[in-house]
Amino acid sequence: MNSPHSMDQTEVLRVKLEVLKREHRDLDDAIEALQERAAADQLTLKRLKKQKLALKDRIQVIEDQITPDIIA
Prior knowledge:
Elements: H1 9-36, H2 42-66
């Protein structure tokens, strides 16, 4: 039985999407701050950029699940 506080799958996906987008923005800020330093750790920058790309992929998958394909 569904309680009034339960969320359907689309709502859960929207919440996950917002969390991932926030993480993506935070990583973007961290990358930018690290790049502004003269002695930026290139390995750390590379890892952060890789994480950011992985988050972008996860965001795209969830957006595709939320938005149905429209055949024109």
